[in-house]
Amino acid sequence: MTKPALSLFDQGPPPPCPAPFNLARFVLRHAASQPDKIALALLGPARAERWSYARLEAAVRGIGTGLLQRGLAPGDRVLLRLGNTPDFPLAYLGCIAVGLIPVPTSAQLSEAETAKIIDILAPALILRDPAVPCADTPVPVLAASALHQMADLSPADYALGDPERPAYIVFTSGTSGMPRAVVHAHRAIWARQMMVAGWYDLRASDRLCHAGAFNWTFTLGTGLMDPWAAGATALIPAPGTDPALLPLLLKRHDATLFAAAPGVFRKLLAGPVPPLPRLRHALSAGEKLPETLRQAWQAATGTEIYEAYGMSECSTFISSTPANPARPGRLGTPQPGRRIALRDATGPVPLGTPGEICIADSDPGLMLEYLGAPEATAARRRDGWFYTGDLGQMDPDGQIAYLGRADDMMNAGGFRVSPQEVEQALQDVPGLTGLAVTDVEIKADTRIIAAFYTATSDLDEALSQQAETRLARYKQPRLYRRLDTLPTGPNGKLSRRALRDSFIP
Length: 505
Prior knowledge:
Shape: globular
Strand order of the largest sheet: 3-2-11-10-12-13-14-15-16
Number of helices: 15
Strand content: 25-35%
CATH class of the domain at 409-502: Alpha Beta
Largest sheet: 9 strands, mixed
CATH superfamily of the domain at 409-502: ANL, C-terminal domain
Radius of gyration: 23 Å
Distance between the termini: 50 Å
CATH architecture of the domain at 409-502: 2-Layer Sandwich
Helix content: 25-40%
């Protein structure tokens, strides 16, 4: 009997990160060769605020000087409670430049949520915009306005060292809802170069517009750090900019790349989209991109959306790119330099079989650890692999279909069913504006598949009819319920848990 081919894809080792190394220095290295080039432009109805590479680097290194003058030492953690302004990336890079460890957090977090983070983190300083919530704490707090004076100080020297040492920390929520502090090394920015060819097709001549706020990690990485590391120009909507103006701003400012979460594309397509002659393509991440949305964008703009899959622990590592576009229903393939496997308890599963998406433990973009949580770290990193908790299915050519979180998988009469598979079958019903599928408990020990949706009118019958024609009986929802909105978490992603927890039979 022939052994089936396994879901293992090795794109070859990435080039090693040079040493000594500093993440901020790498990001801003083009300031010396192109000091007058625009690194950042804030887009809005008024004249755009512009930052040259020279001004950007001077502010970052000046902030580094100011932080050291306050008595902070390399290795100290600095919690960023800042708003949607350039202060956020300036403080982030200013910390890293001098060996401090910044911790960017969402401005949407409540005081109670920040209290948990402060307890886990034990920061030496909190940089805070007074308008951003933050728990009362004995930790020293520095107002964001102080950064503006620091920016004019003499530039600090970059703190060079081992690329394996901690550079920054981001917070993510595990399946239990407990926030986890994800510690990343300086080498993480070096590893992001695998995304340049494997997702972005990013060039120094590009003008990349990211629709998100400064204080979102997706914006921080894809919208700022990566364009600057490539010597390109980052375009960010000014605070308070009406999202409906984004298509006009893309055209007015000659954006060549556009990055956003799927929900933003949906909002933009609700209105007219002007011709965008300079736009080469768009980029999507953060949650699964519906195929119908990709098709609608292509029809409206003549450009493609290339999707990427990743997580806080390793950024993106599976993606579609112009040189290797994904087929409908697929995420794409592992990026160059990545080693990916779909595994179960015994090892890589056969091709075409669902398995947990894993990335090699040696990947240079992978986190160092969950801070203060060695058991949680060990649970994810084992047998030479990092287990993501997400399910996928690999084709013979390496293209991967996303099947959702392992803990989101539904049980229908003994069969395991992916909510994404059901959603994909129903998402093109006319009139549908939002859809989420999960299983719910209708009585003790009895669960059924339910479809929750948003629309201007009831679509129960239309959804049911389409399910009957496209899905096996055991995969078809037994309940349809129209809602005013679908619940999301602080990062804007759909929360299936909230649907399950709030369900009333």
